[in-house]
Amino acid sequence: MGHTKQNPARQLLILILGSGLLLAGVRGDYGDLAGNWLVDFGGQTELRLSEGESHQLTLHITNVRLVDPSTDYTFYVYSKDEAKAASLVTVRKEEFDASGSWQGPVEVRGVRFGYSVLLVDLALAADVKESYPSPLPLAVLRSRVVDERVTTYVSAALALLMFLNLGTVLDLHRLAGIVCRPVGPVVGVVSRYAIMPALGFGLGRALWPGQWPLQLALFYSALAPSGGLANICTVFLKGNVNLSVATTTINSLLALAFLPLWILVLGRLLYEDDELAVPFGELSGGAAALVACLAIGIMLRLCVPKTTRLIFRFLKPLSVVLSLCLVGLTVGLNWFVFLEFTWQVLVAALCLPLAGYLATYLLSKILCRTGTDALTLAIETIVLNMTMPIVLLQSSQLEQPQLDLVLVVPIASSLFSLLLVIGFYGVRRCLGRNKRQDEDGFDHKQLMADQESESTAVYQQQS
Questions:
Q1: The CATH number of domain 28-141 is 3.40.50.2300
Q2: pLDDT digits (tens, 9 = 90+) for 105-134
Q3: Class in CATH terms, 148-453
Q4: Which InterPro entries does the annotation name (predicted)?
């Protein structure tokens, strides 16, 4: 047979690739270097520890059988993600006994909440490596500073103060007209419980395929009815406050029916999780408290006009303070979630409110709603609730630290929806278009004038 002459360029390419493999290290399949060597992590199948906590386990490496007994080798024990957990142990050939076994302590320290694994690698002198195929899963739990219930209860109290504040500015005549011809609230209900869940479900499946906890977090963010922040945004954008409050109230009451329905359909069938639950106590209590605060605000306006006059005067600054307290409290106590911020979270937090705004505004115009009502319903839809999705996720039987990892989705979505509205408000102000468009639009000065007229009329009747 004749000798085949190889192409010099091909030989150079093979040389370069071979040099690169030697520099980077060659990772072989398990069992190629030392047979089926075994690792025992002290009988543990998973290690759970808190941030800053250290745990020492007994590691046992056995059945190390090299083809050439004179070959030098080293075992490395380390965590895959050093930002989550820290561990590094080196075991050299000299530490093994004649049967190819070694036993010793390995310390693992929790660094930041999340998941990692404890890996065991075998490396030969020529920098050829292979890994044990069954690493030890590590779960690092967040150190609790404040009880989660404190955040929920204080946030609920601030939200109820907003509704009490807004109840004093409602016009009962216009509110009755909205209830008698509920086209606007129906659009709000369809947007909240049909359009937004569909958007949240689709975005979640596209951004996090196979990661149902993150999909569920985005779905709950889209499904939860908006709170008082949407009504406050309506005030500043000269929207229809009566329609906004009525839609928020109706959506909060209907949540008792639609949330279980959606969770049954999507949560248990598509997400294949039979442990999802609905916190009926929190939902019903929140809805009842919301209606009660609105009723108290209306009664104050009718019975104690002097008190409501003071509320009218400081309506906007008081609303801003309450809103900042609500957002600041939730973000401040959950700041750790932003350590898990990814591009998928950014896309979800931007696309969900933007798509919801466009869909709701278009639906409102198709049904011949005024520009003020269309703006109001769109704002009511896209200002996402921050507290209720967290409560729903806490009731979904997610284990820690998985629950803490997915909280970034509702918090980021709510913050970005609010930032979008603030940006929209700034653009309208700069262009001089943030004005009352029709008689249903909110006008603080007109409200003050009407209140003064009512007070004067009452005073004259008493005289």
A1: no
A2: 999 998 888 899 999 998 886 667 888 999
A3: mainly alpha
A4: BilAc:Na_symport/Acr3, Bilac:Na_transpt, Na+/solute_symporter_sf
- Only one residue has tokens 């809103």, namely 323
Residues in Cβ contact with 45 at an 8 Å cutoff, skipping those fewer than 6 apart: 136, 137
Q: What is the pLDDT of residues 138-148, one digit of tens each?
A: 998 887 666 56
Q: Do domains 28-141 and 148-453 have the same CATH topology?
A: no
Tokens of 439: 């008689």
Evaluate if residue 456 carries a pLDDT over 60.
Answer: no
Enter the pTM of the model: 0.78
Tokens of 235: 């005030």
Q: Where are the domains of the chain?
A: 28-141, 148-453
